[in-house]
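Have a close read of the entry that follows and walk me through the local backbone shapes. See right below:
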Amino acid sequence: MPALLTQRATHQPRRLTTKGNTTLVGLVLLLAALAFLLFNSLFVLHEWEQAVITQFGAIRGEPVTTAGLHFKLPFIQQVHVFDKRLLRWDGQERTIYTKDRRAIIVDVTARWRIADARTYLESIGGSTSLALNRLDGIIEGAVRNEIGQFDLYEVVRSSNRILEREDEIQLPLTDDAEELPDDLDLTTMGGEMPPLTTDTDGRYLAGRPVVIAGILERARERLAEIGLGIHLEDILIKQVNYTSAIEENVYRQMNAELQKISAGFRSLGQQRAEQRLGEMERELATISSEAVERAERIRGQAEAEAIRIYAEAYNEDPAFFRFLRTLQAYEQVLGENGTLVVSTDSPLFEWIKFLEVKETMEPNQ
């Protein structure tokens, strides 16, 4: 008996220890299961996201559009997350014919967003690539239909400004340059084409902005008919190129128009140059005449002074002054190797005779 009691007492604590371990393990497993269920019951949305919840493939409730922590049934419900931001669509360059049968190459881009996530998921399964493919056909069809209603110049031009504001294209040579003459044709770019049509209020009925607005309206109407849950924000024509068949003619016309403008500028410059040259010549003539007048006045004053000095010299010794003036007269009349024929009674001959007599007397002395 004592041995048996001792054995029971020894094995009793071991049973309690095994039972406690089992309870702890079960508690841990329960917490793990709860954490797993909670993890599969929660989902987080960012500010730029929206979500649609489906249960066995069927949509449950309205789309979730608020950011934060949200709940769902674990395992049986699935969350489909979509972007709320603007998305970009880029089309390929297409050859399109205008109303006047001109072929142009048009490159178009657009921005769109998912406006109704529920419809977006039901219609195309939430596939972005499929949505872009659907937009390809819708936008391309709208571009072809709208551009086909306008002539080439109505698609290319945006306004009549180049025809209405010819006075803005000037070549001011100075700060106070006069306005261009009314008969000077400087701006003829596009002048051979008719102006864009407008309504009674002055709003344009044609032109690139009108074409873009029409394309956007047509594409939105088509999207509303199909019901894709997509909102087309805007459309932009990135580039319009001419085909090789008309590119050469267009460039030739542009070159001719630019040559007209350059000829007008050259004509205006020549006119301004001649005007400035005439003003300069008149100013130069005025300066020259004033200089000549001043020079004559100074010369007259100098000659008067010289006459005064000659008079004073004559009063000092009239005979010597007469002799000196006669010699000066000889120099001016005869010059170098000159011959003079005078009468013996001439006063001028008096000093020549005196010089000859003096020369004949000097050798005898």
Observations:
- Residues 204 and 210 are 7 Å apart (CA to CA).
- The longest helix spans residues 244-316.
- The two ends are 203 Å apart (CA to CA).
